[in-house]
Design goal:
The chain is of the alpha/beta class. It contains 19 helices and eleven strands. The protein has an eight-stranded mixed β-sheet with strand order 6-5-4-7-8-9-10-11, sandwiched between helices. A three-stranded mixed β-sheet has the order 2-1-3, with no helix packed on it. Helix 11 runs parallel beside helix 14, helix 11 crosses helix 17 and helix 17 packs across helix 18. The protein is globular, with a radius of gyration of 40 Å.
Length: 460
């Protein structure tokens, strides 16, 4: 580079008194022409974009630098090799990333297979009979699910409607709730409590919360004191604010009655269609929770275990009230922003109360909390959401309830929820508004105005 900037050695052809040639040597330079004096030719760097071979100017005059070459157009590739190198590097990165994902998945599969190989099945093998209390939609779906786990297993459904009982036994259909879904042949129905409960190994309780206490008191004499009760019912008893973990042992007059609660995002119709579902069983007795997990878990039903009975029950009860609020927003056409704001606020209120009652916050963000809330608030199959939609559309509550053939637990639970919140000194604006609407003391429009007018507060 330095050699290119040095002046060429003087010679006769470059240092003379004659006029510079019109055709200077074939390199880029500056020729300084002094009048009546020798002409100095100064070579410069060669530019591939400059076709002239030299510039002549008078001494002392400014010399313009060579023109800057224009940037290459996007279609031009000044360095083809760099593009191919970049492409190779990008492809190698993609392959490395795919390899990492593949290895992570293979590791997960190996872990899963290893654990499955150790899973005990002795509970299902030892179980000969399961009784289901209640012939509603969810009780029927769970009866069908358990019956499909083992052909030799007897599943006895205690129902109160003789017509439904006959339909199940003769045609293998629940004519009231699932007239198009055939039940397994090992599902039988009876209206006699003693027959249903005799020699049962497990009991699935699917009677609505508000009727559970009186129902259980009437059959208490036929219940074995060691029979595990798996509660499928969600809600709070209106007058006493009791949960099912309190109702069942008190109604059966046995404080040691084994108790497990089953909850999570699950519609009965999808269980009947064997669609993938995940739920939670919670019990203070870890061995009992594991036993129920073995009994119920299958290829289409995942069962997680938990020891947080209170959290699972409170989340299952309050989500029904929140679903009514979500339905009201839908019925009033308040939009997606309103829906998201209301449901997130409702989730916070449920968490505030549940943790005050001693539950774990992780339970509220799990399957039995957020999972069940999302399903109940956003899907049209939800009975409680349907009640809310019709309330938001202007219908009267009495007319709505009289036209339904299933129980919407959120209607009766709402008042109990607010009483419970007052007991634990927790403010619950959204759920309180729902209770007021159900009591016909507040219109949906007025409730929206009141909630939007609450003080602006810090996120908690």
């Amino acid at each position: 580079m330095a050699s290119l900037l040095e002046a060429a050695p003087f010679s006769n052809s470059m240092f003379s008194t004659s006029t510079p040639s019109r055709h200077p040597p074939n390199n880029l330079g500056v020729v300084l022409n002094f009048p009546q004096k020798p002409v100095l030719y100064v070579p410069l760097l060669h530019s591939p974009h400059n076709t002239s071979s030299g510039v002549v100017c008078q001494a002392g005059a400014a010399v313009d630098p060579p023109p800057t070459p224009p940037p290459p157009s996007p279609s031009q590739n000044p360095n083809p090799g760099s593009t191919s190198t970049s492409s190779i590097a990008l492809e190698r990165t993609k392959k490395d990333r795919r390899k990492v994902v593949r290895l992570a998945w293979e590791k997960l599969v190996r872990w899963s297979r290893s654990l499955r190989s150790k899973v005990k099945t002795d509970v299902l093998e030892r179980t000969n009979k399961v009784v289901v209390l209640g012939g509603g939609s969810f009780g029927t779906a769970m009866a069908a699910h358990v019956a499909s786990r083992k052909a030799q297993l007897e599943v006895s459904m205690l129902v109160r409607d003789p017509h439904v009982c006959q339909s199940i036994n003769e045609k293998h259909y629940n004519c009231k709730y699932f007239p198009e879904h055939k039940l397994p042949g090992n599902v039988i129905a009876t209206t006699d409590a003693k027959t249903a409960l005799c020699a049962a190994n497990f009991c699935l309780h699917a009677v609505p919360v508000q009727f559970s206490s009186s129902f259980l008191e009437n059959i208490a004499d036929y219940v074995d004191p060691t029979l595990p009760f798996i509660s499928l019912s969600k809600g709070l008893e209106l007058n006493t604010l009791r949960t099912m973990s309190q109702i069942i042992p008190q109604a059966l007059r046995n404080p040691r009655q084994p108790y497990i609660v089953l909850s999570g995002p699950s519609f009965a119709s999808e269980l009947m269609n064997k669609l993938p579902t995940a739920m939670v069983v919670a019990s203070k007795d870890k061995r009992m929770a594991n036993a129920v997990q073995q009994l119920l878990a299958s290829r289409n039903l995942r069962i997680n275990t938990s020891s947080d009975v209170t959290g699972v029950e409170i989340a299952g009860a309050l989500k029904n009230v929140l679903a009514i609020a979500a339905g009201i927003v839908e019925g009033m056409n308040l939009g997606n922003n309103s829906m998201a704001a209301l449901v997130s606020q409702g989730c916070s209120e449920i968490r505030w109360l549940a943790t005050k009652m001693g539950s774990k916050s992780t339970t509220i963000t799990g399957l039995s909390g957020t999972g069940d809330i999302m399903l109940t608030c956003f899907v049209n199959l939800s009975r409680n959401r349907t009640v809310g939609v019709r309330l938001g559309s202007g219908e009267k509550l009495d007319d709505i309830l009289s036209s339904m053939n299933q129980v919407a637990e959120g209607v009766s639970t709402a008042g109990a929820v607010i009483a419970l919140a007052q007991k634990y000194k927790v403010k619950m604006p959204v759920l309180t508004a729902v209770a007021r609407i159900i009591d016909n003391e507040l219109t949906p429009n007025k409730a929206v105005l009141e909630l939007m007018g609450l003080p602006q507060v810090e996120e908690v």
